[in-house]
Amino acid sequence: MKLLNVQSSVRHDGSVSRRLSQAFINSWQTHQAEAKVISRDVGQNPPSHPTALWTQANYMPPKDRTPAMEVALQQSETLIEELLSADRLVLGVPMYNFSVPGTLKVYIDNVVRINRTFAFNPETQQFQGLVTGKKAVIITPSAGNFVVGTPLGDLNFCDPYLRSLLNFIGITDITVIPVPDQLMDDAIRQENFESAQQQLMALATQW
Predict the structure, then answer these.
(1) Which fold has domain 2-206?
(2) What whole-number distance in Å separates Cα of residue 135 and Cα of residue 35?
(3) In this predicted model, what pLDDT tens digit does every residue of 120-134 receive, in sequence order?
(4) Extents of the domains making up the chain
(5) Closest alpha carbon to 171 in 110, 117, 93
(6) E strand or H helix that includes residue 136
């Protein structure tokens, strides 16, 4: 069993998403024989943005790509192979301005690629996700309470986007663990942190 741990917080010390992700992974490993964890820190070491050459290469049949095109896609290929090889996916995603961190968006732009993580049938005009048979958990701390379904939930463009994106590439077994009010007073912040931690510990035994 292999787990891919993708962290997108720009902070290291003091990062709620990192702390909870690591606690979850530690618990998950105790229930899995020979579990392997691959970590990808896009918050502190983001991948490169796609370029014009990258885009041209992406839509070019592999046999027709030039050496320069192959180089342009090399990082993307590495990220995609990491994702495809994993059985489980942990995403640490603090909400920044109602959405995902920009570094995570760059990661997504590198891994969501036609004929690699999704396909398109021109006859039926249908898309098909190619990243199947996996489970994902998304840990989303936020400064206030933007949980979907609450009064400010309409401002949450983080959870719905990630759910839609993962569904698009074929990952449908998704659990979202919100950690709201992380800029509120200590008592509220700690209560929500502990609630998220309890949910994650329960999930770790089920994965």
Answers:
(1) Rossmann fold (3.40.50)
(2) 15
(3) 999 999 999 999 999
(4) 2-206
(5) 117
(6) strand 135-141
